[in-house]
Amino acid sequence: MQVTTEKLNPCTIKLSVVCETNDVAQGYERALKKISKSIRLPGFRPGHAPKAMVEGMVSKDQLNQEAADEIVRSTLTKVLKEESIEPFPGNRPSVSLEKLDVDSKECVYTAKIPLAPIVKLGEYKGLSLEKPKLEVTNEEIEYQIDDLRKRKSSRVPLTDRGVDAGDVAFVNIKPEGDQTGRNFMTSVGQTFPELDEAVKGLKVEEMKNVELTFPANFQEKDWAGKTKKVQLTLNSASAVKLPELDDEFAKSLNASDVTDLRTKVTETLEAAKESMGRDIMVEQIMEKLLAGSEVEVADNAWEDIANRRLQETATEQGQQGKSMETYASENGMTLEELVQAWQEKAKLYIKRAFLIREIFAAEQMQLTNQDLNQELVTMAYEFQVSPAEMFDVLKKNNSLEELQFRAISTKVSEFLLANADIKEATKPKAKKSAKAE
Q1: Residues 256-424, CATH architecture
Q2: Residue 415 confidence (pLDDT) above 50
């Protein structure tokens, strides 16, 4: 084999491999043998049918895919041993197939091999932090109470006025030449601007002729992206009715009266802001810790995370009829900038993860069942499921390691905060107005 070695960074080696013809031939033989075990032919046991018969039943793509796996698996093991390279077990090598040909028995590929991370931990005790002042304002309290009222709101038929933003409208949209049109249930203000504006002010059974340009991702695919002259008819509408802010409403939320409700809301907001302040300080301390430490990681580690997140985003956007280019544009980026942003975020996450594990080991910390159960409850709350359901999902997806790392991260964060030099943030002084000369 011809092997070229290139060190991309202290923790990543790139191997360029040109395989021997014998290795390629054997790889195809093993691949065909493996595939044949799944093929049923009358008169033959699985895996014992004549080679010529099996070859005629296997697609070229399937054979090439299986052969590539066999060739890379066997040759890469040899190369790593010959080059005395010890891959880091936490990440798999990433392989890119450059050439594969069964007739000429050629196979050329490159492999990025992850090496063990390099972590030189800086000082992590006594780091100075600033605890942010996060006071609960009256406006925030009233906003939360209004939100509670909205959650207990009811819908009442709208008969005395035209529809407005926030109302639910049942409308018929009938393009020119269409006999019946199509019916839609819409929340006014949340469809698309032209339709929202056209519906506003209409009363039940009123009609209006307008021209609408339907968005590219409109639910009716044959209308999407097209401009049509249509007749709108408001079949029915309903408005939100909020409950009165009185003691009866307060009691429905397990408060004795309105004053008690405001007290409970205030305490909830204070707890939320306390948690937010903790998150801000953890972010501060991780930034300082990373700046004062030396961390080198393999490209494979963060590339896997970034690629997985991008694939998840692509699937989510595809379900909404959007491309990744459209999604990036909506967020003020090109696709290349979006990919780079996720790569940088993934790289930062991995570096912080190694620092957290290093501190966990340096302080000889141990996880208890209580630590894991508390983290499971936290994750369940985030995903709005029961702890038992959360555990089943993690187990099904082989993600119990994520639960363990989150528990480690929580424990290390609490340790860092307990050993930090924390000062209360002060409000900036108001600037004095300049005197006229």
Answers
A1: Orthogonal Bundle (1.10)
A2: yes
Same topology, domains 2-116 and 154-241? Answer is no
Q: Is 168 helix (H, G, I), strand (E, B) or coil?
A: strand
Q: How many CA atoms lie within 13 A of 164 on its CB side?
A: 6
DSSP E strand boundaries for 143-226: 154-157, 168-175, 182-187, 207-213
Say what the pTM is.
0.71
- For β-strands 106-114 and 12-18, DSSP reports them as antiparallel
Q: Is 223 helix (H, G, I), strand (E, B) or coil?
A: coil
Q: How far apart are CA 186 and CA 119, in angstroms?
A: 55
> How is residue 384 written in tokens?
């709005």
Which residue from 381, 376, 380, 433 is spatially nearest to 404, judged by alpha carbons? 376
Convert the pLDDT of each residue in 107-156 to its tens digit: 999 999 999 999 999 999 999 998 888 889 999 999 999 999 988 988 88
Report the sign of the C-alpha dihedral through residues 131, 136, 139, 143, in that order: positive
Only one residue has tokens 């209004």, namely 146
Q: Which amino acid is at 65?
A: Q
**Which architecture does CATH list for 2-116?**
2-Layer Sandwich (3.30)
Q: SS3 of 174, please?
A: strand
Rg over alpha carbons for the chain, rounded to the nearest Å, is 31
Tell me the helix, strand and coil percentages in the chain, rounded to 5. 45, 20, 35
Residue 305 to residue 25: CA distance in whole angstroms: 35
Q: Under DSSP, is residue 2 helix (H, G, I), strand (E, B) or coil?
A: strand
How distant, in Å, are the alpha carbons of 50, 211, 276, 367 from that of 103? 20, 62, 63, 56
Q: Which residues of 184-194 are buried (b: 16+ CB within 10 A; e: fewer)?
A: bebebeebeee
Which residue reads 């008690």 in tokens?
A: 260
The domain locations on the chain are 2-116, 154-241, 256-424
Residue 386 zone, left/alpha/beta (φ > 0; ψ -120 to 50; rest): beta
CA-to-CA separations, 175 to 179, 235, 289, in angstroms, rounded:
8, 16, 62
